[in-house]
Amino acid sequence: MNLKQCIVLLGFSVLYWAASCQEIVDQPKNILLICIDDLRPELNSFGANYIKSPHIDGLAAMGRPFSHHYVNAPSCGPSRYTLLTGLYGTANNDAIFLRAKQMEKSAKNVPPSMPEWFRQNGYTTVSVGKVSHHPGGRGGTNWDSDSIPEMPNAWNRHLMPVGSWKTPKGAMHGLANGNIREVASEHDVLEAEEGPDEIYPDGLIVSEGLTQLEKLATGTKPFFLAIGLIKPHLPFGAPKKYLDLYNDIEFPPISHPEKPQGKTTWHESGEFMKYNRWGKDPREDQQFAMELRRHYAACVSYADKQVGDILNKLKETGADKNTIVVLWGDHGWHLGEHSIWGKHSLFEESLRSPLIIYDPEMNNEGVKSNAVVETLDIFPTLCDLTGLKIPGFTQGTSLAPILEYPQSPGHIAIAYTSSARTIRTEKYRFIQHENGEVELYDHSTKEKETQNIASTNVDLVVELRKRLVERRGN
């Protein structure tokens, strides 16, 4: 080959490289959504240096962690409804299934869900694991009926590997090696068995998620892939190697462990208490409480490892250069605060959860935002970041300005149960009960949500009640 031929060949190579780069730039961004069940913001990157969460911490270091993200309902079903629809909804745990029934009656009167919106706009949409309320997104006795989709028209594929647990319902509360919850009182509340990640359901979920990610990354269309992990949801079971991480770790004391006085959304931790606890009550037994906290932490580290596997595969495919990553916890979880073990309250511990958003084009990587934001904001944010039109029916606010400038202000956050609703501002939490009683807490004081100051701040109560009604309705 002579010099002239070499120059011509080099020129073609440069043009091909430039065209390839332009093609990558012109392609709509992909979306990778990672949903984690019952995950508190008790992570190293969120200030808990005793927790082993290196992979989530790595995502936080290159993305935007939101330290004051609040869910719109402290329960799986209604919280995921707001994520997936961009709308406030009922507090019913079957909120997404109820929406599907509305679609059967009159689909034109039900706005498209977030994955359906992206699907309508040219995306391939796939879910694996617990993204909607039921792992795999189906109803029926064992949550595996193709005739009862939880989210009609949302997914090109919605998958749930079940392995030895046999059904999605069996996997949801499954312990190691196919151990299914038949009777909750006979199902241990904690466990740590020797073995690989796949002896618990999340290992299988992520394995299938990696397979789907590889397929989508080699496709010709942009993708919206959602992978939902079950842990650290009850029961607290994870491979023993994750529990061993905490053998010599000292946990801080439980904050405000006392049962609150007066009218609150305190409850008796029924979801937790129905498991086999060997006659022990963590509200009275500090050693058992510590054991539970270690097992919860083990489940967090197990989930963190799955997040690492997902992110590593994304990078391996090369799709990381054009993929927005969102890590979202569907609500918080009390580990003894206010004498509660579980979620379902309107206290901070039930409503605050991790949110991390990574955009390959973002600046100020790793800078934490202290802005108050809510789950409802994710749908419009992803539209904004991918260049899609934000549908007019969504009720959230795009967080794109905060991704650009982490010091940007947030906004109020709303949440609700069947009998109360709350508004969280930067400084206050206000709770309105169905019977008219109210709670008001000042987060700028050391007492925070342990001292109800409503009776001495009547004007502020009136103002926050008005803002709550304006945002959520009567």
Automatic annotation (TrEMBL):
Question: What are the protein's UniProt keywords?
Answer: Calcium, Hydrolase, Metal-binding, Signal
The UniProt record lists the Sulfatase N-terminal domain at 29-387
**Is Hydrolase among the key words of this record?**
yes
Cofactor(s) annotated in UniProt: Ca(2+)
Q: Which domain of life is it from?
A: Bacteria
Q: Which residues form the signal peptide?
A: 1-18
Q: Name one GO cellular component term.
A: cytoplasm
Q: Which Pfam families match?
A: Sulfatase (PF00884)
Instruction: List all membrane-crossing ranges.
Output: none
Which molecular function term from Gene Ontology is one that the record holds? metal ion binding
Q: Which PANTHER family match?
A: IDURONATE 2-SULFATASE
Q: Which family does it belong to?
A: Belongs to the sulfatase family.
- Name of protein: Iduronate-2-sulfatase
Q: What is the lineage of its organism?
A: Bacteria, Pseudomonadati, Bacteroidota, Flavobacteriia, Flavobacteriales
